[in-house]
Amino acid sequence: MTPQAVYKWANGLSVPSPDKISTLSNLLNASTDWLRYGIDENDRMANLSELDDIFISMFLNLTNEQKKIIVDVIRNFK
């Protein structure tokens, strides 16, 4: 990575390749989503409703088999 390349990325003149984003992610201790889109998992979680938060908490406590069943049920609603 050259200073010129970083300058172009920072100023929106070019976009880093996926491998450079991964390297930057490790160097900066930042998520690749944050580097690509300016958002990270914490931003997404902050926008959840109370019901969404409850659902996610409950879902994470299920077994993998139970999770598969729930996903199948949700897919059938579409």
From TrEMBL:
Residues 1-35 form the HTH cro/C1-type domain. It comes from the Bacteria. GO terms for molecular function: DNA binding. SUPFAM superfamilies: lambda repressor-like DNA-binding domains. InterPro entries: Cro/C1-type_HTH (IPR001387), Lambda_DNA-bd_dom_sf (IPR010982). PROSITE patterns: HTH_CROC1 (PS50943). This is HTH cro/C1-type domain-containing protein. It comes from Avibacterium paragallinarum (Haemophilus gallinarum). The lineage of its organism: Bacteria, Pseudomonadati, Pseudomonadota, Gammaproteobacteria, Pasteurellales.
